[in-house]
Design brief:
The protein contains six helices and eight strands, in the order E-H-E-E-E-H-E-E-H-E-E-H-H-H. By secondary structure, it is an alpha/beta fold.
């Protein structure tokens, strides 16, 4: 059975079912306090929201790194750290906007900020983030700051070609975060193009997301339970 899981409680009786393959936005969701907890038997699917913006990788992005979101967080300080370390940073670099509510009046709009080389996807209430899928749809490179989150359909997608992962602890140091991101235009364009390709094949429509889930689950049943490549920490 392919079973949907989105629960912060540990139902051990369900987890022990060997006839279940679970799927959800985070298959460690049952234990938000332990990023090294054993994942459920199953696969991670994409977040439900589609991107409302699309920018061409061949065109130079307006921004280098962006994030606009709420301060929602549970059991960690990642977004609070980001807010503190990037406070006023846009006055030093106009191509870097990492802002959390309440927003400054001159802050760019949400979808305008997707015209960027890198789009932050930090954890909030949970490990997974809407921004991850929205970034892909905009052809921006997702920068994941969510220790313990397994990426969607990782057993059928080579995420190392299109995404970057940074440790949550790095949120306390804006300069170190920026130094961890490639600045070479050719590298940025190549990764943005790959993000676009992955989005087009696996995420662009609800139907493609559903088919990708079935493909990932089939691969899991065939023994392909791990990630195709390791999106290591920068």
């Amino acid at each position: 059975y392919l079973v949907w899981w989105m629960c912060h409680n540990d139902h051990k009786a369900l987890r022990s079912r060997r006839d279940f393959i679970f799927f959800g936005f985070d298959i460690r969701d049952y234990n938000l306090g332990d990023d090294a907890a054993a994942p459920l038997r199953g696969v991670v699917m994409s977040s439900p929201r589609l991107s409302m913006a699309h920018y061409k990788p061949a065109d130079p992005p307006k921004f280098f790194l962006t994030f606009r979101g709420s301060l929602n967080q549970a059991g960690h300080t990642t977004r609070e750290d980001l807010q503190r370390s990037f406070k006023g940073f846009e006055k030093q670099r106009g191509d870097v906007w990492v802002v959390l509510a309440p927003f400054a009046k001159d802050a760019p709009g949400y979808w305008e900020m997707m015209n960027t080389a890198y789009s932050l996807a930090p954890r909030g209430h949970g490990r997974w983030s809407y921004r991850f899928g929205e970034s892909l749809g905009a052809c921006a490179i997702p920068v994941i700051m969510s220790d313990g989150w397994m990426l969607p359909f990782a057993n059928i997608i080579k995420w190392g070609e299109a995404a970057i992962r940074l440790r949550q602890s790095l949120a306390k140091n804006a300069t170190a975060m920026l130094e961890a991101l490639p600045t070479d235009p050719a590298t940025i364009r190549r990764m943005r193009e790959k993000a676009c390709e992955i989005n087009a094949e696996f995420f662009a429509t609800e139907a493609k997301r559903a088919l990708s889930l079935l493909r990932s689950a089939k691969a899991y049943m065939q023994g392909k339970t791990g990630a195709l490549d390791d999106v290591g920490f920068g």
